[in-house]
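User: Here's a chain of 121 residues. Predict its fold as tokens.
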Amino acid sequence: QVQLVESGGGLVQAGGSLTLSCASSESIVSFSFNAMGWYRQAPGKQRERVARITTDSGGLAIYADSVKGRFTISKDNAKNTVYLQMNSLEPEDTGVYYCHADLSGWPYNAWGQGTQVTVSS
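Assistant: Prediction complete.
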């Protein structure tokens, strides 16, 4: 079963930057993967998708409106790792960030354990 391990969270001041990493236990370019993404969940709120990138050679990326122009999702196929570069961070970006894999077969989804991002004003 696919395992995802996030790293890179922490405390940063507003306007600062952080880069999150998500390492997969399996090759993300295999036919098992459709896409990788990042979600976040703020206290008392529902989990929302922040960014998503397809794992094919095209690497099509989409973003939530709230992070467009500030966040960049990318992947390193050789390292089976997906990144989320977060710039111009705002206190509203605070939350637990989860890595997600969209799989072509059962169990169709895989989640990391989450990493905390806290942006102070």
